[in-house]
Every structure is written in structure tokens, then in C-alpha cells.
Design goal:
The chain has 10 helices and 13 strands. It is an alpha/beta fold. The structure holds uridine-5'-diphosphate-4-deoxy-4-fluoro-alpha-D-galactose. Uridine-5'-diphosphate-4-deoxy-4-fluoro-alpha-D-galactose (UFG) binds next to α6 and β8.
């Protein structure tokens, strides 16, 4: 394909001002890549991409996307812009299909029109539904149990067709539980409302919020759900490897991304208490609808094929980076009222 050379070309990062996207932007820039962030700032934060070219735009705006791809000589896209709450997706499937499926089709149209042929797509463990066997490998059946997982799977299933018909090759990365924060302390997790376990437990330890365990009657060793927490910087490094593979000619595929270590809610609460030196006051609550008992990954394939190795595997390190950022940023990025 003729077009911008690697030295003048940029990587477009949709949702680059969000939690995982901003960590990927930082990793790309550390690698020397030129980056342009495309974010409507509905959930992203301008300070998370300070000093990075930012186009404030929506993925539904095809003309804006095409203009951005052209103006910044984009030759690859990392697509993070999406809604991410399992619970909300059950109440508002229409919104999730519109945003996550329709929004992605709009991006793919723009990429095809501008002949941008490499895509790294944010997918999720939610594509698997209730696991039939663990650890979950890429060959595990995909039967989502909520609209969020369905929307991500719908895109995953479309992508190989785009490769065959238009030459648009992609890697879908299925994240398990993204957690932690930039080890340099520049970036962190700032969702409104915050629904994830680790930041909620940290807020409780800091006396900023109450905390409830969603069920302790699961068939697991301590009765609470088992998950697979993976450091957000390790997720970011996987995106760089996926892009390198696409540039080297790899075909469209999917990889699971976790640490492969089943970790219970109680394990996380103990880690938070160890790291912070504070107690997490808690109440026991009922199960949360839609929570599978056990979800953990085999990441053997991405390790073998792309050489991915996590640097921040330890649960205490994951919690410690999250804790440092949250303690230093009680209001998150602190700019919520400006838009
Ligand atoms: N939990 C609590 N109390 C809380 C918050 C969470 O007990 O206040 C428990 C949950 O029940 C669950 C575990 O902590 O057992 C982790 O919950 P999170 O909300 O942090 O994360 P999930 O495992 O629900 O979500 C993750 C990803 C989603 C993905 C989903 C698949 O964030 O993108 O796994 O089920 F869709």
C-alpha cells in the first residue's frame, strides 16, 4: 500500500483519553510513535492526554473521522472508544448496540475509505459468558450473557470479513479485569460512577465510600467471585505488540489477556489492607446480577506468538499503583465540571 511512511504516520487512538486508552497512548509515545487521540470526552479526561494532539470528536461522525485520518496521516488505529458497563448494558441494550457496534462500523467505514489497514480492537472477557472450562483460552466458546459482551463479540465477528474484503487486518484483545495505574503516577482510573472492585475498595479504606461484597455464597474456595486482574500498563504493552504484528503482516486474530491467576474478592480486599495499612470496612451483600463465579484467562497464546510478558503481575503491585494514584487524586482528574 502506498501512503505515509512509518516516520511521518500517526496512530489514531479512539477513546485515548480514557483509562486504558490513555495508558496505551503513553506507551506508544514512549516508543517514539506519533499519536492522535480521538475522544468525545464523555468519559475521557483532557488532562489524561496533556501534550498529545486531541480531536474532540465522536466515532459516529464519519466525516470528522475521515478528515482526522487524512490530516494526521494515520496508518493504524487503536479503538478503545466504547461503553463498558455490563449492568448498564442490560438496562440499555439499544444504547450499547448504537455506541459499541454502530460506532465501530462508522470507524471501520472511515478506515476503509482512507485505506487505513491496521486495527487493534478493545474486546473483553465478557464475550465468553459463563465459562465451561478455566483457564479460558481463545478456543473457548463465545456465549455472552449480557448486551455489553454481545456488542464486542458482534464487532469481533465482523472483523475477519473486513480483512477478506478490504484488507483491513485487526487484532482483538480480550481484557479480563483491567486494574492498577501508571507506575509513574501520571495516569489512573477515573470513572463516574466508579463500579470496579479495586478503586471502590481503596475508597472504602480511605473512608471516602462504603463497600459491599457482592455475594459470598459462590462455589469458590472463599465463597466470593474469582477474577483475573491485569495491570493496565501490561495491557498497553500488548497493544504495541499487536500493532507490531499487524505491521509485520500478521492475519486478523484475537488474544486473551489476563495474568492467569484466579483471585477472589477477599484476596483483593486483603491486598488493599496490606498495601494501604488500613482496614476496608465492608458489608456482605447479595450477588450482583450477571456476575459469573469464575473468570480467568490463559494468555499463553499471546505470550507464545507475540512475546507478551507482564511486568506488573503481582496483585500487591497492581493495588499499590492504584492506591498511589487514587490517594493523590481524590477527585480523579478533577476537571469533570468543565464539560
Ligand atoms: N465487586 C464487589 N463489590 C464492588 C464491586 C465489585 O464485590 O463494589 C466484585 C464483583 O461482584 C466481581 C469483582 O468484584 O466479583 C470484580 O468486579 P468488577 O466490577 O471490578 O469487574 P467485573 O469482573 O464485573 O468486570 C470485568 C470487566 C468487564 C467485563 C466483565 C466480564 O471490567 O469489562 O469483567 O464479566 F465485561
Amino acid at each position: 500500500m502506498s501512503g505515509p511512511t512509518a516516520s511521518t504516520a500517526s496512530v489514531l487512538v479512539t477513546g485515548g483519553a480514557g483509562y486504558i486508552g490513555s495508558h496505551a497512548v503513553k506507551a506508544l509515545r514512549q516508543q517514539g510513535a506519533q499519536v492522535v487521540v480521538y475522544d468525545n470526552l464523555s468519559a475521557g479526561h483532557r488532562p489524561a492526554v496533556a501534550g498529545v494532539p486531541l480531536v474532540e470528536g465522536d466515532v459516529h461522525d464519519g466525516a470528522r473521522l475521515r478528515a482526522t485520518l487524512r490530516e494526521h496521516q494515520v496508518n493504524a488505529v487503536m479503538h478503545f472508544a466504547a461503553w463498558l458497563s455490563v449492568g448498564d448494558s442490560v438496562k440499555d441494550p439499544a444504547g450499547y448496540y448504537r455506541n459499541n457496534v454502530f460506532g465501530t462500523l462508522s470507524l471501520l467505514d472511515a478506515m476503509v475509505a482512507e485505506q487505513v489497514e491496521h486495527l487493534v480492537f478493545s474486546s473483553t472477557a465478557a464475550v465468553f459468558g459463563n465459562p465451561e472450562e478455566t483457564p479460558i483460552s481463545e478456543t473457548h466458546s463465545t456465549r455472552p450473557i449480557n448486551a455489553y459482551g454481545e456488542t464486542k463479540l458482534a464487532v469481533e465477528r465482523a472483523l475477519p470479513h473486513y480483512a477478506r474484503a478490504y484488507g483491513l487486518r485487526s487484532v482483538a484483545l480480550r481484557y479480563f479485569n483491567a486494574a492498577g495505574a501508571d507506575p509513574d503516577g501520571e495516569l489512573g482510573e477515573d470513572h463516574a460512577p466508579e463500579q470496579h472492585l479495586i478503586p471502590r475498595a481503596i475508597d472504602a479504606a480511605l473512608g471516602r465510600d462504603t463497600f459491599q461484597v457482592f455475594g459470598d455464597d459462590y462455589e469458590t474456595p472463599d465463597g466470593t467471585c474469582l477474577r483475573d486482574y491485569i495491570h493496565v500498563t501490561d495491557l498497553a504493552s500488548a497493544h504495541l505488540l499487536a500493532l507490531d504484528a499487524l505491521r509485520a503482516g500478521a492475519g486478523s486474530t484475537q488474544y486473551n489477556l489476563g495474568n492467569g491467576r484466579p483471585t477472589s474478592v477477599r484476596d483483593v480486599l486483603e491486598a488493599v489492607e496490606r498495601v494501604t495499612g488500613r482496614r476496608v470496612p465492608l458489608t456482605m451483600g447479595p450477588r450482583r446480577a450477571g456476575d459469573p463465579a469464575v473468570l480467568y484467562a490463559s494468555s499463553a497464546r499471546i505470550a507464545r506468538e507475540l512475546g507478551w510478558t507482564p511486568r506488573f503481575e503481582s496483585l500487591d503491585v497492581i493495588v499499590e499503583t492504584a492506591w498511589r494514584w487514587r490517594e493523590a487524586h481524590p477527585q480523579g482528574y478533577g476537571e469533570k465540571r468543565t464539560y
